[in-house]
Specification:
Elements: E1 2-3, H1 14-24, E2 33-49, E3 52-65, E4 72-84, E5 87-101, E6 108-109
Parallel strand pairs: 1-5, 5-6
Antiparallel strand pairs: 2-3, 3-4, 4-5
């Protein structure tokens, strides 16, 4: 499950859903980007057991727009990872945003008040 936020699109489920998202992302706001640069740091891994962990990773993402100002976003990925026969895999990912500039998208807030 991948959830980038309600303004980005519906929750993505499974490998086929991820492939469809990547194939279709040329439509909508994302098509206006000439380039992007995503920076991740400050990774905190908390093991829930030998085969499962929660992971918080900070994100800063810059996007070069075809026209107008360059959008930026910063926040955290909230992940659940599991060990499989093929190695560690992300089972769940939710992007939570602490701030943004020049995006007209609805995001999940960094802090969940509910």
């Amino acid at each position: 499950m991948i959830d980038y936020g309600p303004g980005v699109g519906p929750v993505i489920r499974g490998r086929e859903g991820l492939a469809r998202f990547r194939r279709d992302r040329g439509t909508g706001e994302a098509e206006a980007f000439k380039a992007t640069s995503h920076h991740n740091a400050n990774v905190l891994v908390s093991f829930d057991g030998p085969d499962r962990a929660t992971v918080l990773t900070s994100l800063y993402a810059w996007h070069q727009a075809a026209e107008g100002p360059n959008p930026r976003v910063w926040g955290y990925y909230h992940d659940v990872v599991v060990r499989t026969g093929e190695g560690w895999r992300i089972a769940e990912r939710q992007l939570r945003i602490g701030g943004q500039e020049h995006f007209s998208l609805a995001w999940h807030p960094l802090q969940d008040d509910g």
